[in-house]
Design a protein that fits this description.
- It is a single chain.
- The protein is of the alpha/beta class.
- The chain has eleven helices and 17 strands.
- The protein starts with a strand and ends with a strand.
Amino acid sequence: MKAVIVREHGGVEKLLFEEADKPRIKADEVLVAVKAAGINHLDLWVRKGVPGHKFPLPMIPGTDVAGDVVEAGPLATGFKAGDRVAVMPGFADPLTEHSLSGQDQLSRDYGIFGETRNGGCAEFMDAPARNLMRLPSHMSYSDAAACPLVFLTAWTMLKKAGVKANDLVLMHAAGSGVTSAGIQLAKLLGATVIATAGSEEKLEKARRLGADFLVNYRQDWVEEVKKLTSKGGVDVIFDHVGPDTFDGDMKLIKWGGRYVTCGSTTGGEVKLNLRALFFKRISLIGSTMGPKADQIEVWKLLTSGKVRPVVDRVFAIRDIREAHSYVESRRAFGKVVLDATQW
């Protein structure tokens, strides 16, 4: 089969087009003919490398996948050839203590397609049947491939932060996949959203998703947010930027506020004033991925139309290098998706 493979870390030239063996499925797995694959920042890290972290190269990238079942193992109950599906990006041994308690993402063997196991940038992909979600006829493959990781991440972050009606939530990087999902989900919970972005075009798109207040972070965004707060600060900060925003966030968060993060795109270390932490009773919450129950819950919201996929552009998979460069340029609003039928 045709596949994109990363054999060593580096620039977009390290995305190689090769022939690979078609996966052989296990008894509880299915073989999916891939129709679309979403690009996440995780794909960029797998390709570029992360200091201090070892990826099991060579790797077929591609975390978010949608396609058709072409073969099902004898224990892959509930699915058959021809079924349209999306793939949950995270997996773990279903019999671990964490998995059995509904917290599979905490299992020590937890992995993600395209990071710890081959993903969907190929003609075919193998996956456990328990990782499949049915794709309704009204949803396109490209829309489906834009959703699983970012909507799971955003939904779990909001739940862990206890976001509720009338909370004031500051959400950074509105153009990112996670935040464009998070804005919609926060509004669904009844929160008031302040969204930041670096251009008026992105801010306008954030407004269309439901953001109540808009702040251009190229201005003095801390002072601009202060003007919008009447209760001594914001209740929740939803972040994955890291050092570039953290100091400002600590100035804006109210007493008893919650700071939740799923990433750190501008670096891995920040300065934390512990006195401010305990005096203000701040909760610092780390979040990566989420349990399958959250994935199923947010998928129902998507397929019922209560929230929607945000797709910026669809590239042919043969143009994956250009697609990676486009994501890195930070021009996209929402998700960039690969049409996996165009080799």
